[in-house]
Structures are given as structure tokens and as C-alpha cells.
Write a structure and sequence with these properties.
Helices cover 24% and strands 24% of the residues. Strands 1-3-2 form a 3-stranded antiparallel beta sheet, covered by helices on one side. The termini are far apart. The relative contact order is 0.15.
Amino acid sequence: MQIRARHQKLDVPASKLKTEIARILKEEGYISNYKTQEEEGKLILRVYLKYGGAEAGHLRLGAASRVPAAVCTSATTRSSASKAGWASRS
């Protein structure tokens, strides 16, 4: 059994970054709309959520982790790093 709240809107503290993300989400069709407004002396970002049938956009946000530098090495990267003095000394 799956329970869904189906909220119409979401209010979060506003920032330039969050507003830009909301703009992109609207442009891509994940949300129906957004706006910033002042409430109780603080700026908030109100996001109007979008629901639909099977074609509804599903969005999962989470923290992105950084890939360790040791994993992202190639022959070119290693030789460039060695020339620059960045290679680890074993």
C-alpha cells in the first residue's frame, strides 16, 4: 500500500539558487509553476507541484557526492598530473 499526500504547493526559504532550480524544473515540465514572495518578513519560494497519470514527472533530489580523485584517473590525467607535480609519490 502506498500513501501519497498530493500537496498542491511547497514553501521553502528562497535563495537565488533555489529560484533558478525552480525555473529549470518548470521549463522541463517537472513542476507547474513557482513564485517568490514575502511572508512574515522573510522571502519564500512557493513551488506549485504537478501531478498526472503515467506521464507525470518524477523527481528525486538528493545530495551528490564527489568522486574520489583516485577513481577518475586515466593515462592522460596521470601524465599531466606528473608534469604539473600533482602526482602522488609512492
